């Protein structure tokens, strides 16, 4: 499965990845598209051991195909991992941990949940391009048990910033979403710098924190309208869809500790919403899955999610 060669249906997927050897050989081609190179001595000849390790003929170094991927240290067959990636990719709105547990026959809900968290980590592509052209930027919030205070001073809420490209014919282009600590000028300016190309036109509302854009290399347009829904319509639509998605697939049960992962999943899906082939989405997700080191379970549940990218092997 290279380039445009990817499974276009469930039947085709099951035929290509019906055995552990098929998955192993495919993962090898993904990790070493130009052939094996020993990470220790640079030699290019090897043989497979009985435990499916690559054994270098020159220096006797052994390495696992799973090293440096989200599959690392997992004792489950690659066949199950491939099926999990397929299920996540082929359902446009996503899949819950409970659903994945039933689909893969896991005895433990925690196993399905941890697999999804690891897969979500790989949805944030390493070295992704910044937004460009005209970009709407705003911030929103999630959470809170009571109505109480609203707006940028809302209590018990978790802020996230949103950037939306104004595409051709004023349609929505690509998006970026980041968890932020507050709606202050330095925080929002950093989000814009990290996600929008300099020289772009940044559209915002009149919130004073965006005043710092005057000292940055961006064009800044303040949008004003008596109807708040028409100030930044594309951002409003994206935020609305994100919240409906969280409530629909995950019943809204998302804490701040894992909110960034759900933001990343939504961005991954939204930016590929027009893809005519779910198989291509599966291929991209698999590509990214071999660029991220697996996160142990204790870290998944014990601290705020962080991306730990690894450089892809040649």
Would you write up a description of this structure?
By secondary structure, this protein is of the alpha/beta class. The chain has a domain at 134-250: 2-Layer Sandwich (Nucleotidyltransferase, domain 5). It has 10 helices and 8 strands. The protein has helices at 10-16, 20-31, 78-90, 97-104, 109-121, 185-195, 233-250, 256-270, 278-289, 297-302; strands at 46-48, 53-56, 62-64, 134-142, 158-166, 172-180, 201-204, 219-222. The protein has a 5-stranded mixed sheet with strand order 6-5-4-7-8, with helices on both faces. A hairpin with a 4-residue loop joins β1 (46-48) and β2. It is elongated and about 70 Å long. The model is unreliable at 146-150 and 308-314 (pLDDT under 50).
The helix count comes to: 10
The top-level CATH class of the domain at 134-250 is Alpha Beta
Coarse morphology: elongated
Largest sheet: spatial strand order? 6-5-4-7-8
Q: How much helicity do the residues have? A: 25-40%
Salient structural properties:
alpha/beta, three-stranded antiparallel β-sheet, Nucleotidyltransferase, domain 5, 314 residues, disordered C terminus, 10 helices, 14% strand, five-stranded mixed β-sheet
